[in-house]
């Protein structure tokens, strides 16, 4: 294919070391080279036609500009053979582009057997990545050179997981699981964005992606498990506060800018008015109730927008959160 | 030239048997209750230009905010509302009605050689529906804003506290306005063409309006119903889109894009029609491949209904659906490509003059070329996955919708301005404005392709510092574009106040609207115009006495399939 070889030589031309090219971030997954090369093939075809069109246009404007001594020359006002030619040739190129895009897309959609599976929860406005052994992180840690499958769900609105370096993107739709897979090729740190508009802090719903060196992912994961198990309850609670997304909505100081829920600072043990006019004492039971059935007793002045954590947290973890809130003073 | 001058003695230089449409009656009531399509067109023009100003100011505020990665002066809430309203106002209040409702309303009957559209009262009603719909949009701004994005995706739009209901009502009402206009044009073209105005003697602008009207009538109801369903979902919680109640959020996207993708062709088809008129006139050449261009308009209108799913390749729709939509999407690009080649072939061996409308037409071919070709990246599945919802998409649709529709609208506005208002504008300043708009536009949107392929998501109020250089370039371009548009406005306003009187035919065009005086009389023509093939320039010569072009009687006999003996119209 002369066209594809043109595309590939263009790839080489634009490649600018490890930091990607002028057009792309670096390639971090096995599918990235195929996507990029299709991109450059389309670029080559487009550039050819665009330059042709603009060059012909400029040439005609100069050559046939209206001026004394120049008038319209006779020329046919239609030519069926020509018109069919310039419909069919672009048509064939389009078929080629479509087929290339389709073949790569099939690779993107079909994960290999036995891919390592990570559960992903998207919510306004944070990511939670849960590993098979129960560790939950806000960063996506990945093993090198091993197929990884993300099984994703959303707790509120549509989000979209986008890792530019891997050239993958997939929406998270509430009420269903969506999946995406990739195989990393290079250790390092990358960015993960939410690509579907999801409200106020949409642009801060970003996360780091860390691809570990060969052999370093499993030890890291084990260390995380040990750390979770060894932490005293209040500190585990603080960790969960960060990792489970509480931090997006609840402050632990007096700065509540951008937070849609009440601050935890100094609330434990206090009497608080509820939206339905009653009052409640913020004690262990109220906190547990608020985690498992958040809309049942909403504090006055706040919207019933918190998702339930029923089934997502173990008793030990709920206790840890209670201890953490308790530690923030009465 | 002396030969021409002697022939002008016998030329059609029509006297004024009645006052022109602007002066034939006075007082605000004569405008507010007018049934004259020309006055309605002018009112539409003023209304959409106000909308454009509003949407444009919001665009500049957004670009200014993006000059720095962190907060400059807009909170995240304000930013989200601003881009939502920018998109909604520009799409629903400016781009969709711009060419059909303003220029089309004014020109369609005149180009057809008739007195008015088929249903003048319905035409006036369509304008007031537009105003009514626009008021709902303004209400949305006042009632706590709107922060859903112009696409209103569920379930975000059913849960946000902002004024979704007012805005959806606005869209619903604007839909009726659009349907009324489309229906009116279809009936007018089908039933009122005067004798001699066969389908293949219609100017291509009318073909494009006809194709546009088909889309307006068939697609807009789906949007209206979707808006109503959204309101029902919010107020009654009936569970069409809410997964907790067994609904499907992706269903909304199908409904939405079933209208909104064809809506792109509501914007771009009339633009292509305008460009066809301009390229032919300013090259003094019959348009090349008239029938191919005419048929390609209809082909685009019909194929445009089959491609909505290409907005949803990563939404979770099946791989099979994605594949079918990708394949169908590529079919639409062929008729678009045909038109570009036809315009170039029209210029071949012509006598090309670069008056302002032609400058806009050339700018259109350049910008639409980029906009169309970058559609290939988004139609192809593998590249779309990476580029979807990034700035690449933002750049692409601005090249198509703004670079295409806005530029063609400006070209058409400059072309028909002397006809509409009877005044010429300053040619040099108008060309300078066109150049600044062209440069500013490219500086604004070209860097956004790179931003997108490098991974910058759209609709971000804050962004990573690695993108800052491209954003600053883009913002600077936007300011330049703003200056160009202001200059353009200044030139046109100046022409109303000080411009020299326009002749009936300042450009040497051959379509019927140039056969009546400028501005046209109340009933368009003092006597029924002679209908002949639309793009024959041999018998139109420059007359220095009128500073415009006139028709000479002794039409040279050119045997062509489009040129038959002229037929007297009975309108």
Automatic annotation (TrEMBL), chain A:
<dbReference type="InterPro" id="IPR014222">
    <property type="entry name" value="Cyt_c_oxidase_su2"/>
</dbReference>
<comment type="function">
    <text>Subunits I and II form the functional core of the enzyme complex. Electrons originating in cytochrome c are transferred via heme a and Cu(A) to the binuclear center formed by heme a3 and Cu(B).</text>
</comment>
<dbReference type="GO" id="GO:0042773">
    <property type="term" value="P:ATP synthesis coupled electron transport"/>
</dbReference>
<feature type="transmembrane region" description="Helical">
    <location>
        <begin position="38"/>
        <end position="62"/>
    </location>
</feature>
<dbReference type="InterPro" id="IPR001505">
    <property type="entry name" value="Copper_CuA"/>
</dbReference>
<dbReference type="Pfam" id="PF00034">
    <property type="entry name" value="Cytochrom_C"/>
</dbReference>
<feature type="domain" description="Cytochrome c">
    <location>
        <begin position="232"/>
        <end position="329"/>
    </location>
</feature>
<dbReference type="GO" id="GO:0016491">
    <property type="term" value="F:oxidoreductase activity"/>
</dbReference>
<dbReference type="GO" id="GO:0004129">
    <property type="term" value="F:cytochrome-c oxidase activity"/>
</dbReference>
<dbReference type="GO" id="GO:0005886">
    <property type="term" value="C:plasma membrane"/>
</dbReference>
<keyword id="KW-0408">Iron</keyword>
<comment type="similarity">
    <text>Belongs to the cytochrome c oxidase subunit 2 family.</text>
</comment>
<keyword id="KW-0249">Electron transport</keyword>
<dbReference type="Pfam" id="PF00116">
    <property type="entry name" value="COX2"/>
</dbReference>
<dbReference type="InterPro" id="IPR009056">
    <property type="entry name" value="Cyt_c-like_dom"/>
</dbReference>
<feature type="domain" description="Cytochrome oxidase subunit II copper A binding">
    <location>
        <begin position="113"/>
        <end position="223"/>
    </location>
</feature>
<feature type="transmembrane region" description="Helical">
    <location>
        <begin position="83"/>
        <end position="103"/>
    </location>
</feature>
<keyword id="KW-1278">Translocase</keyword>
<dbReference type="InterPro" id="IPR008972">
    <property type="entry name" value="Cupredoxin"/>
</dbReference>
<dbReference type="InterPro" id="IPR036257">
    <property type="entry name" value="Cyt_c_oxidase_su2_TM_sf"/>
</dbReference>
<dbReference type="InterPro" id="IPR045187">
    <property type="entry name" value="CcO_II"/>
</dbReference>
<dbReference type="InterPro" id="IPR011759">
    <property type="entry name" value="Cyt_c_oxidase_su2_TM_dom"/>
</dbReference>
TrEMBL record, chain B:
<keyword id="KW-0479">Metal-binding</keyword>
<dbReference type="InterPro" id="IPR036927">
    <property type="entry name" value="Cyt_c_oxase-like_su1_sf"/>
</dbReference>
<dbReference type="GO" id="GO:0006119">
    <property type="term" value="P:oxidative phosphorylation"/>
</dbReference>
<keyword id="KW-0679">Respiratory chain</keyword>
<feature type="transmembrane region" description="Helical">
    <location>
        <begin position="469"/>
        <end position="493"/>
    </location>
</feature>
<feature type="transmembrane region" description="Helical">
    <location>
        <begin position="163"/>
        <end position="187"/>
    </location>
</feature>
<protein>
    <recommendedName>
        <fullName>Cytochrome c oxidase subunit 1</fullName>
        <ecNumber>7.1.1.9</ecNumber>
    </recommendedName>
</protein>
<comment type="similarity">
    <text>Belongs to the heme-copper respiratory oxidase family.</text>
</comment>
<keyword id="KW-0812">Transmembrane</keyword>
<feature type="transmembrane region" description="Helical">
    <location>
        <begin position="42"/>
        <end position="62"/>
    </location>
</feature>
<feature type="transmembrane region" description="Helical">
    <location>
        <begin position="357"/>
        <end position="377"/>
    </location>
</feature>
<feature type="transmembrane region" description="Helical">
    <location>
        <begin position="320"/>
        <end position="345"/>
    </location>
</feature>
<feature type="transmembrane region" description="Helical">
    <location>
        <begin position="124"/>
        <end position="143"/>
    </location>
</feature>
<keyword id="KW-0813">Transport</keyword>
<dbReference type="InterPro" id="IPR000883">
    <property type="entry name" value="Cyt_C_Oxase_1"/>
</dbReference>
<dbReference type="GO" id="GO:0004129">
    <property type="term" value="F:cytochrome-c oxidase activity"/>
</dbReference>
<dbReference type="GO" id="GO:0046872">
    <property type="term" value="F:metal ion binding"/>
</dbReference>
<keyword id="KW-0349">Heme</keyword>
<keyword id="KW-0186">Copper</keyword>
<feature type="transmembrane region" description="Helical">
    <location>
        <begin position="429"/>
        <end position="449"/>
    </location>
</feature>
<keyword id="KW-1278">Translocase</keyword>
<dbReference type="GO" id="GO:0005886">
    <property type="term" value="C:plasma membrane"/>
</dbReference>
């Amino acid at each position: 294919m002369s066209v594809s070889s043109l595309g590939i030589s263009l790839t080489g031309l634009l490649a600018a070391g490890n930091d990607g090219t002028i057009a792309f971030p670096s390639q971090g997954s096995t599918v990235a080279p195929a996507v990029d090369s299709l991109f450059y093939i389309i670029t080559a075809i487009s550039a050819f036609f665009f330059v042709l069109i603009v060059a012909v246009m400029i040439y005609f404007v100069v050559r046939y500009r209206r001026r004394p001594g120049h008038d319209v020359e006779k020329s046919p006002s239609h030519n069926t053979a020509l018109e069919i030619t310039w419909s069919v040739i672009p048509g064939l190129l389009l078929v080629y582009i479509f087929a290339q895009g389709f073949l790569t897309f099939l690779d993107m959609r079909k994960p290999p057997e036995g891919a390592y599976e990570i559960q992903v929860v998207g919510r306004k406005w944070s990511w939670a990545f849960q590993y098979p052994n129960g560790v939950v992180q806000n960063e996506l840690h990945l093993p090198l050179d091993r197929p990884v499958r993300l099984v994703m769900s959303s707790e509120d609105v549509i989000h979209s997981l986008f890792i530019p370096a891997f050239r993958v993107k997939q929406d998270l739709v509430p009420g269903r699981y969506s999946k995406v897979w990739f195989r990393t090729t290079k250790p390092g740190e990358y960015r993960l964005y939410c690509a579907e508009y999801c409200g106020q802090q949409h642009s801060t719903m970003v996360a780091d992606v860390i691809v570990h060196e060969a052999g370093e992912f499993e030890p890291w994961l084990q260390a995380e498990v040990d750390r979770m198990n060894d932490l005293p309850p209040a500190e585990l609670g603080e960790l969960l506060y960060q990792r489970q997304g509480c931090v997006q909505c609840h402050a632990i100081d007096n700065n509540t800018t951008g937070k849609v829920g009440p601050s935890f600072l100094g609330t434990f043990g206090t009497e608080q008015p509820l939206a339905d006019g009653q009052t409640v004492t913020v004690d262990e039971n109220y906190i547990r109730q608020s985690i498992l059935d958040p809309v049942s007793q909403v504090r006055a002045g706040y919207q019933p927008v918190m998702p339930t954590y029923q089934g997502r947290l173990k008793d030990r973890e709920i206790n840890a959160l209670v201890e953490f809130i308790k530690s923030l003073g009465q | 030239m002396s030969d021409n001058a002697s022939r002008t003695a016998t030329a059609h230089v029509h006297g004024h048997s009645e006052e022109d449409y602007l002066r034939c009656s006075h007082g605000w009531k004569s405008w507010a209750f007018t049934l004259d399509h020309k006055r309605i067109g002018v009112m539409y023009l003023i209304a959409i230009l106000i909308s454009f100003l509003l949407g444009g100011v919001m665009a500049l505020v957004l670009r200014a905010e993006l000059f720095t990665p962190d907060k400059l002066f807009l909170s995240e809430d304000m930013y989200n509302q601003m881009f939502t309203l920018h998109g909604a106002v520009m799409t629903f209040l400016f781009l969709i009605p711009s060419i059909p409702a303003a220029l089309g309303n004014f020109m369609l009957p005149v180009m057809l050689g008739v007195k008015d559209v088929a249903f003048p009262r319905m035409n006036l009603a369509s304008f007031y529906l537009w105003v009514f719909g626009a008021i709902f949009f303004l209400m949305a701004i006042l009632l706590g804003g709107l922060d859903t994005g112009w696409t209103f995706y569920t379930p975000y739009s059913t849960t946000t506290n902002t004024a979704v209901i007012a805005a959806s009502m606005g869209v619903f009402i604007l839909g009726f306005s659009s349907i009324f206009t489309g229906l009116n044009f279809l009936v007018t073209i089908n039933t009122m063409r005067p004798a001699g105005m066969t389908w293949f003697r219609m100017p291509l602008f009318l073909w494009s309006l006809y194709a546009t009207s088909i889309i307006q009538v068939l697609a807009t109801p789906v949007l209206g119903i979707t808006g109503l369903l959204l309101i029902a979902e919010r107020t009654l919680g009936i569970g069409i889109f809410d997964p907790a109640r067994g609904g499907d959020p992706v269903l909304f996207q199908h409904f939405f894009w079933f209208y909104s993708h064809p809506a792109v062709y509501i914007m771009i088809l009339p633009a292509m029609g305008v460009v066809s008129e301009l390229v032919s006139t300013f090259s003094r050449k019959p348009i090349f491949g008239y029938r191919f261009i005419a048929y390609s308009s209809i082909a685009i209108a019909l194929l445009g209904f089959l491609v909505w799913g290409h907005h949803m390749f990563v939404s979770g729709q099946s791989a099979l659906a994605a594949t079918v939509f990708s394949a169908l999407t590529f079919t639409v690009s062929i008729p678009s490509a045909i038109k570009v080649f036809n315009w170039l072939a029209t210029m071949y061996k012509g006598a090309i003059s670069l008056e302002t409308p032609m400058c806009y037409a050339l700018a259109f071919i350049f910008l639409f070329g980029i906009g169309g070709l970058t559609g290939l990246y988004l139609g192809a599945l593998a590249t779309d996955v990476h580029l979807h919802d990034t700035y690449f998409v933002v750049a692409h649709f601005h090249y198509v919708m703004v670079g295409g529709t806005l530029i063609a609208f400006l070209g058409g506005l400059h072309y028909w301005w002397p006809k509409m208002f009877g005044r010429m504008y300053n040619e040099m300043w108008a060309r300078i404005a066109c150049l600044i708009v062209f440069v500013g536009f490219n500086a604004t949107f070209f860097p956004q392709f790179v931003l997108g392929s490098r991974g910058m998501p759209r609709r971000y109020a804050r962004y990573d510092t690695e993108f800052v250089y491209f954003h600053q370039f883009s913002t600077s371009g936007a300011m330049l574009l703003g200056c160009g548009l202001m200059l353009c406005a200044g030139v046109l306003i100046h022409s109303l106040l000080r411009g020299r009187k326009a002749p009936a035919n300042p450009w040497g065009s051959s379509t019927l609207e140039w056969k009546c005086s400028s501005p046209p009389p109340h009933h368009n023509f003092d006597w029924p115009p002679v209908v002949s093939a639309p793009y024959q320039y041999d018998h139109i010569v420059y007359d220095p006495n009128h500073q415009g072009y006139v028709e000479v009687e002794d039409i040279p006999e050119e045997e062509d399939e489009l040129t038959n003996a002229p037929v007297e119209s009975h309108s």
